[in-house]
Each structure stands twice: as structure tokens, then as C-alpha cells.
Amino acid sequence: MKRKDLTRLQVLTILGGAAVMLSLAMGMRQSWGLFQPQLIRDIGITAADFSLAIAIQNIVWGLTQPFAGAMADKHGARPVALSGVVIYGAGIVTSIYASSALAFTLGAGLCIGLALSCTASSIAMNVTARAVSPARTSLAMGSVSAIGSLGLTLASPMAQALITTSGWQVALVGFLGLVAVMLPAAFLAGGADKLAHDTGTGAYQSVGDAVREAMRHPGYLVLATAFFVCGLQLVFITTHLPTYLDICGIDPSVGANALALIGLFNVIGSYLFGWLGGIYSKRVLLGGIYVLRSLFITAYFLVPPTPTSTLVFAAAMGTLWLGVIPLVSGLVIHLFGLRYMATLSGVAFFSHQVGSFIGAWGGGLIYSTLGNYDRAWQAAVVIGITAGVFQMMMNVKPTPRVMAERSNTLMAA
User: Fold this and answer.
1) Residue-by-residue DSSP string for 81-101
2) Which of 248, 189, 202, 240 minimizes the C-alpha distance to 11?
3) 270 and 145 in contact (C-beta within 8 Å)?
4) What is the pTM of this model?
5) Full DSSP string of 218-252
6) Range of 206's domain?
7) CATH number, position 92
8) C-beta separation of 126 from 65 below 8 A
9) Domain count across the chain
10) Is pLDDT above 60 for 172?
């Protein structure tokens, strides 16, 4: 079946399933920081223990994402996504019954990390790009990413309300309800599997050939390396902002509301950058996001936080949150084509998750050692500005193979 044979309803069903799956997977993942103060008090883990578990979640996500992407490219997104939902549920159940740092790390770290590689941005963007025409790819990915941001506006306030009224275990039971909703969403997103792969007009290329081709492209190496800063900045904020506000004496509800506000403004930002990416330079937009995030972090952490400044900061960061997804995915498609998009996005995503590991664990380690987060946010700012500048200078020339295929396609038309 070809893309043009899909009805409008079928396209909307695939995109809707991808958006809901992404929304809930990311919404719960970005709300784990709300549980940190209670877990420290109740099961006796330290801030460093909690940070290490979230760091492992991110590095497992990064390590397994290329393999999950390759499985989706070869066998289809549906079995990968459905398996990921089941593993997500298993990770939450393990966390509910955790009584030690090791058990919590197994659930929230290992299981959730593996589940995210099967249900989050890489798989969602893969099915989105396959379901729409090339001219609408950037906008469609921005739209799915925007809807995918709403999960944080649901998961974060729900989790905080349940933690406050009934305890953190009940809040995790609430997360299990969201996992149940992910099952039909993953099934619907897998409708893209019926579409024939675009293999181009050139010679056959294996997944190994595709990875080797990408690793020889200087622009892809810059893209993947700069993606490191995205993970570092975002996971540092979602993991440590609630604790930072707690030690500053600010009500915990402010942290939950800030995370929800990030999700709300991310809807605007994701759609905006998806739309802008179809008109303007994706590399400049992507580099600009990294630089602007760094400037907002500097402005927020230079002065003592207040509820108002925290919410303003959350709105600003939310606008720049997942807008990177359509831009990175679009650049991968531009450089190498659509065939192995999930695999190559997954390889680049590993760099993102190394940054996430450092943002989560490093932030907790710095706080445990120095008693404050000053050196952590300062490092995030310096790295962010440096990566943003290099990203803006990325080589965006497609590979000779892709250029030849596109030239042949135009001549045939």
C-alpha cells in the first residue's frame, strides 16, 4: 500500500495514535522529579540514588533506541510500540513496590528507559513521516509533537495531587491508568506499517550501510553531538527543579504547575518550530533553540526563585522544549531519506541520552557534594551556547546517494 492510497481518516488515525502514545509516554517520564522528595523520605534513598536511577533510565533509552528503531524499520512500528507499552507498565509496577534504591532503579531506570525507546519520539516521528507527503512532513511532525506535549499537562498535576492526598504509590497507580490508554494508541499508530517502505531508486542499502553512511557525514556528526545538550538541559530541569524549589521553601504545587506549564507551552513551540522548519533553515532554528534555552536558564538561576519567576521560566522553556524533534527528524530525512529514519534518529538520540544521563545524575551529584545547583546550571549554560553555535554551522548537504535518487525521481516525473 502506498501513502497516496490512505484515506484522510486513516492518516488522522495514525497521527492521532502516535500523538497520544508520545504524549503519555513523555508526560509520565517528565514527571518523575515530583516523586523525588517523597521517595527520599519514605524508602531512604538519597538524591544521588534517585538521580542515578533517572540517569540510567535515560542512558538505557539512548542505548536501546537505535535497536528499537532498527526493529521498527524492519518489522514495523506496531509490535515495537505495543511491547514498549507492556514494559512501561512493568516498570511502574516495579517502582510501586520498590523498597530500595536497587529496586527503584530496576523499575524507573531500566524498564522505563527500555519502554521509552519503543514508545516515544523516534517511533512516533517515524510513523508520522511515513503517513504524510514530504511537503507536509515538517508540519505534521510538529503537530504530533505539539499534541504529544499535552501529556505533561495531564500527568504532572495528576501525580502531584495524588502524591499530596494519597501518597506516591497511589500516584504511580494513576500512571498505570495512563499506560492502559497507551495500548490502543500504539496499535493505531502502527497503522503506518501497511505502507510500503520508500526504498528510493538507487541500489539496495542495508541498515549497516545506512549507519556507516551517516557516520561519514560531518553534518550528521555535528547534529548528533549537539543533540547532547538538549538532553542535558531538559532532564536536569525535569529531574531537579522540584527539589530546587523544595530547598528554596517554595510550595511543591509550584513545581507541578511549572511542569504542566512546560507541557502547555510546548504545544505552541512544537507546532511553531514544525511550521518554521518547513520554511526556514532547520539547522539555524535548532541551534537557536539551544542558545535561547541557555539564556533563559541563566536568567532564572541568577536570582532567588519565586512562584512567578518559576512559572515564567517554565513557559519560556516550554516554548523551546520538544520543538527540536521535528527539526532533528527533518534534518535526518533531508540528509539520508526516509527509509532508515528511525534507526538513524535513534543513533543520534544516543548522544541526547548521554546528555540526559549527565543532566540527571550529574545534577544530583553536584547538589549532594556542594549543597547547591550553581555549578550544574552554569555548566548547562556553557555547553548549550557552544553546541548551539556549532549546530548553526552544520553541513546540510545530502549524501551523494540521496542527491542522485532525488535527481532521478525528478527526471522520471
Assistant:
1) HHHHHHHHHHHHHHHHT--SH
2) 189
3) yes
4) 0.78
5) HHHHHHHHHHHHHHHHHHHHHHHHHHHHHHTT--H
6) 3-412
7) 1.20.1250.20
8) no
9) 1
10) yes
